[in-house]
Amino acid sequence: MIVGIDAGGTLIKVAYTKKGEVHFEKYPIAEIEQVADWVNNLGDCKVCVTGGRSGVLVSLLDQPAQEMVEFEATHLGVQVLLEKNGTLEDAYLVTNVGTGTSIHCIQDNMQERLGGTGVGGGTLIGLSHLLTGVTRYDEIVGLASKGSRDRLDLKVKDIYEDKEPPISGELTASNFGQNLFAISDGLTKEELLAAVIGLVGETVSTVSVQAARQCRSSTIVYIGSSFIDNPLLKEVVTSYTILRGSVPVFPDNGEFSGAMGAMTAL
Ligand code: ADP
């Protein structure tokens, strides 16, 4: 058996082959010892580990494991997933919306990190919890998908009331920028959570589209667990990316890119 593990800030992603088929699993980072026990009980296997918490995981393993730099593992994994989808291009951007967000340009078979933002999946959970008290990720994204951002976000067209704006009126002028002092008590959890996802989605897509200018491609491949069961984030990122002139792609199992790359390297 060969096993690739991406131990990140929030989640541990595992990719492994069994009877020639690839399987994926994910666990909260708090369960790192259980993941190590699982590996230790596998018997004859090869393991490659990547991600910020890979050192901790390796220290819990009974057998030596290969380690791989996270960005290289992600690059390799994205390549494999895009090939499977039949959508692999020569050049593209990868935006990994994990706990934080990291942006990479892939061209000439090399990856270069162009930048990132601290706004990511961690912001999604943290800000959502502070604003509404909701703790669980699935509850946050479920409620958010039922909410509207109209009473919270200020659009360009709201500012240019009777005039033609110089940029698309549909762009957000200010996230949480409406006059909220008057209505703050009456806002629902659904509205607040939708606005948090709007903030995260618009920030990561705006930064990605700007980074695309440094890469000879306008295709942006979005990966990371922040998109799991999160149709609203996908929708915000898709529409904002298209509005800004780039092409969004969400590969199947994109959140397992790092684990897949680590497994493929073996
Ligand atoms: P990392 O590698 O930094 O752990 P991920 O790509 O795994 O990053 O993304 C982590 C983010 O995924 C979280 O911040 C959260 O927004 C989202 N997420 C998706 N599923 C879960 C879950 N079951 N529990 C917690 N966060 C989740």
Give a brief outline of the structure.
This protein has 266 residues and is an alpha/beta fold.
Written description of the protein model:
This protein is an alpha/beta fold. The protein has 2 domains: 2-87 and 256-264, 2-Layer Sandwich (Nucleotidyltransferase, domain 5); 115-250, Nucleotidyltransferase, domain 5 (2-Layer Sandwich), CATH 3.30.420.40. The protein is 38% helix and 24% strand. The chain has 9 helices and 12 strands. The strands form 3 sheets. It has a 5-stranded mixed β-sheet. The chain has a 5-stranded mixed β-sheet with strand order 8-7-6-11-12, with helices on both faces. Strands 9-10 form a two-stranded antiparallel ribbon. Helix 4 packs antiparallel against helix 7 (189-211) and helix 7 crosses helix 8 (231-243). It is globular. The mean pLDDT is 96. It binds adenosine-5'-diphosphate (ADP). Residues 8-11, 51, 98-99, 121-122, 124-125, 137, 224-226, 228, 255 line the site of adenosine-5'-diphosphate.
